[in-house]
Amino acid sequence: MLTMRTGLLRAIGAATCAYGVATAYRPGLLARPCGLVDADGQVGPYTVVVLRPLAWRDAACGLAMLVAPQGPALATATTVRIASDVGDALLFGPVLPGRVRRAGAAVSALGWAALTIAGLIGRDHHATAMH
Hints:
Blueprint: H1 6-25, H2 28-34, H3 45-67, H4 72-92, H5 99-121, H6 125-130
Helix pairs in contact: 1-3, 3-4, 4-5
């Protein structure tokens, strides 16, 4: 039987969805910490075009984690979130300007992936208390 920390996964899903929606509305929330702005700190139109789909991907992944029925559907939504985070670390990490930004992006993405994995393979306290 598949065990997971459903409450943690739902919280991660809610946070991911909220961040995705906020970033789609204001791409600078992601662009600025990644150094993807011009000399005046403004987010260019091409950067916006690239970041908004990523933000909607996060919103959709988070929403799926929030509403998927417990079991295989939630595990699948969670696995998509983990794959997205690992992809972000591998694809953003090496190309962002500056070593600190590259490391920060990789650590952040892998940290979220690790937390999400912990929720996926962990046990709910209610499940362990009943056994």
